[in-house]
Structure formats: structure tokens, C-alpha cells
Amino acid sequence: MPAPELAPLDEMVDRLERVVEGSPADSTELAWVEAVRHLESNGKRRRDTFERRERTVFVRVRERGRTGLHRTGAAGLSDLDAAVRQALAHARMTPAAAAAGNGAAPQPASAAEPAGPAIIPVGTSPLFDPELARLAGPWARDRVHRLVGKGELAWLAWMEGRVAVVGSGGLRRAARATAATLQVSCGRGPGTGSAHAAARSLAGLDLPRVFARARERHAPWQAAAPPAGTPPLLLSQEAVARLLDLLCQLTLSTLSFHEGRAALRGRLGTQVFHPAITLRDDPLDPRALPFPFDIAGTPAAPVELIARGVARTPAVDAPLGRELGLPVTPHAVSHDEARPDHLALAPGTAGWEELARAAEGGLWVGALDPLESFDPMQLRFRATACGVRRLDGDRLGDPLPDLVWEDSLFEVLSRVRAVGSEPVTMARDVLGGTTAPMLVVEPAAPLRTKS
User: Fold this and answer.
1) pLDDT of residue 114 exceeding 70
2) Residues near 121 by Cβ (< 8 Å), separated by ≥ 6?
3) Most buried in the list 24, 134, 321, 397, measured by CB within 10 Å?
4) What mean pLDDT do residues 153-157 have?
């Protein structure tokens, strides 16, 4: 059954403004995020094709110094009025001691003046690709089928999102955005080659190049035995992006600090990684999936999270800003959580040959799936390294079986031999993605075959 049409952006803004104007609270903020997602592939399973719509409305009110929050998936005027009343009830139930901590906090440096127009015009926006918004399932299936070869699988996903933020005091932001992702897998089992890409436009995705990258990583011959010891690893861009996403989840989000499990607590301002590691959150970077404001309506601005291995700041909301003495950052993903959603690891200067020399005698890792943490305070993780190949000079050699890798992000990102010059973006959702180059690292312990 086709997904329903998205609500027109101007209608969304008008509806939110009417609810804010009629709110009995001292101040009210509404953020509306709605998206329609599509997926087509050449796979034969039902889950390989879908079309669905998602909607969330975040509500925040201030009443007599107390803050109340609510979220809903409903969008009618009466539903939104009811959501405001729910947020008011939450505010009135907030203990006085907690309310005292909800006062004003340091403002983000970018909040002084809006960056660009409040309503982003679709015709001139780098966020929105009309061709992608009009893309139909049959065309996508045909395009995928024309590109795939024997033994290959491809998943083409695309989405359109509409975001509006309206609040008391004239806050008004709205934008439409599109995003597309392509995942290609060549072969099965050991030696599988895989590649990903993401972009705001269909042309920016460069489908043939993603297929070519996956094929370059594929080894169609029999797997060899894993080497002994701890050889260096040359990690693909996709593998590095997965590690950065885990780092963000474990210790760069406000949730990790509020829950008391952030490994960077007490280490801000100190050297925690190799000097080659500079990690920014850059929602204005056109190579990634840019977006001009966060869910609080704060204009986007680049923020340096890790500078030459020194931990500078996590995402910071008002309570964490007061606790750590840091300015609030434009990273709100809801009214009660902030998270960097446009991570970008600064690329180095190493091309493929230089990376291969730095990892001489080591292994190529094409993907990390699954990847999970089992000791957040030490940033320890367990991953299955897939698409593993021996490095034979500057070529990919024999394939190896999938290997289990247990290590710490503190260790891995401190033992960097080289940083690649060609980044790749992997999408998080319609609002952002993670951009990473290849890395050559030294593991702390041998990788082992899966039992």
C-alpha cells in the first residue's frame, strides 16, 4: 500500500503557529519532523522493498519556571492542542528543585543571528533534489537491476523529510530535504565486497562508482587462514564511519553524560586519541548530508569535538552546559537530547598506495557488522570484521573468513598509522550522516575466527 503524501510545508508551519498562539503556557515550542522512506533492491525477500511514512512532533513548554515535554505522532490541530496540555501537565508536576535547574543556560555562539532564511526555498536549496522526491519504485528497481551483476545485491533507499520548528518569541524555521543511500554487496561469505554511499541528490550518489568500489573489494576465490599476531588493519571508510557512530553514541551525546556512562567525562581538554584524529560535527559540509538548523531551531554551525586528539566538547544541552561550564551546541535531536548528527573525520593526505604501505603485512577490513559496546566507560567494543582480505603490496590479496575484533576505541584511535584522503558518507537519517576516510590502525589484540 503506498505511503500517504507528506503534509505541505506551509500548512505545517501555519498549523504549528496557530497552536503556539493559542497555548496557555508562558512559552511554547513545537518541532515537527515528517519523512517518507522507500527501499528497493534486487533481493527476493519482502523486507527488501518497502515504503512508509514516519512523523514525530516534539512539544516543550515553560510554565512558571518549570519545563514540560511531550511527543506525539498525531498531527491534527486538536491533537497538537492536547499535546501542549500534556506538556503543561508535565511541567506542573516537575519538582521545584528540578525546576530551579531549568533556568537559562549559555547560548550557542551560532544562536545570535539566524543563518539564512527561516523558511528554506525549495527551488534554491542544496538540501532538496526534485528528481529524488519524484523517484518511483519501478524506476528504482529497474535502475538497480540494470547495474547489478551475477551474485550481487544492491539496496537503493531514498527519503524525503519535512521539518518545521515554531516557538514563542518569533522562532520559525522550516525546510524540506531529500537523501539517498546505496549499499552494494558482491559475492557471499569470505571475500564479499561491499560499499556504501549517501547524498542529498541522486546525481551526487554516483551509483556506478559505488558498484565499482564494491567490485574492487570482492575476492571470488577460497578463503585463506588468518595470520598470527596482531597485524595492522586498513579500515574501509564504511568501517571507520561505524566506529565513529559508536563513539558518538557512547560518549559524545548528552544522553551518555546524563546517564553517567560517558567515557570522556573528566577527560575534556586532554589528549585521548592520536594527533591525526580531528573530529568535527559539520552540518554545513556539502559532502555530507547538510541541514541548516537543529530541532530547537538553532542555526547550524560547525563544532570541533576532537582537535588533534584532544577532547574538546560533546554535544551540550542547557543542563549539561551548566554542569560542565560549556556553551550549548546546536545539536538538539529532540527537546531532551542533543547528539552530533553530522560527524566528519578530517581526511589526511594518504592515497591508496601510501595507506597500503602503512599497513604492510596487514589486513583489509571492508565492514564491521555487527558492532556493539560491552564496556562503555572504557569504550570497549566487539565487532565482526567482514570482507577481510590480506594486503599484498598495494593490492588486496587472499580473502579471510569473518573475524571477531574486540578492542577499545581509546586504543584504536590512539594507534593510527595513516589517514586516507578520500572520505565516504553514510547516512544516519534524513537529517544527517557520518563522513569518514580510510584509517590504518594497530589492534591491541589478535582478531580471531568466529566460533
Assistant:
1) no
2) none
3) 321
4) 93
